[in-house]
Write a structure and sequence with these properties.
The protein is mainly β. The protein is built from one helix and eleven strands; from the N terminus they run αβββββββββββ. Strands 1, 2, 3, 4, 5, 6, 7, 8, 9, 10 and 11 form an eleven-stranded antiparallel beta sheet that branches.
Length: 204
């Protein structure tokens, strides 16, 4: 009787823990390049004599993650983004160059077809619109967060993220014919966007 119970326990343990052990063997480093499109709103809090304004911020970009995964279910990665969105309101319409970087942690189903969820802390970045109407500002010192979810099929992931960034500093690069180069520490810009992307997570 004791032998039969021991045998049953051994078989049950093997059935339960074998898939986990196999998944753990698949842990390691991964990279995840991708293409993004963002659509959002910007809130520009400018110093006197400029007026505060709202702006649409839309455009394509690229993304990249480099990190590691454990049991194919938990992943941590450095996350970098580069984009060229258009910043537009009633008085201002300019192409921008933007980048930001941060740290991502997430969970995913350890199967060929599965759901992924993650959060990203954005630690830094900037957005530099081109000069328009004689005004040239560069927004700096970005921080904020992204939360996202995706559906992964093999090494292709279709993703949707919500991003909230605040640029805590701005540099007045040009005003009319004058090159100013002054830091406007009291200036803030906020960017709340939805980002859709196609990315390609695969193990090294």
């Amino acid at each position: 009787m004791k032998f039969q119970l021991a045998t049953l326990a051994l078989v049950t343990s093997s059935l339960l823990f074998s898939p986990l052990a196999q998944a753990a063997d698949k842990g390691g480093l991964f990279i995840e390049p991708g293409v993004t499109y963002e659509q959002g709103d910007g809130d520009l809090d400018l110093p006197d004599p400029f007026e505060d304004s709202d702006a649409d911020i839309n455009g394509f970009g690229v993304m990249g993650r480099f990190g590691f995964h454990i049991s194919e279910a938990f992943f941590v990665a450095a996350d970098g983004r580069y984009s060229q969105p258009q910043m537009k309101n009633d008085d201002y319409d300019a192409k921008s160059t933007a980048y930001n970087y941060g740290l991502t942690a997430g969970l995913q189903m350890p199967t060929e077809l599965g759901i992924r969820v993650w959060g990203t802390w954005v630690a830094g970045g900037q957005m530099d619109p081109e000069k328009d109407e004689g005004l040239d500002l560069k927004f700096q010192d970005a921080n904020g967060y992204r939360v996202g979810a995706g559906i992964k099929l093999s090494i292709v992931s279709l993703n949707l993220e919500y991003q909230s960034l605040t640029y805590k500093d701005a540099e007045l690069q040009e005003l009319g014919p004058f090159n100013v180069g002054e830091n406007l520490n009291s200036t803030e810009a906020k960017n709340d966007s939805w980002i859709v992307s196609v990315s390609f997570p695969f193990a090294l």
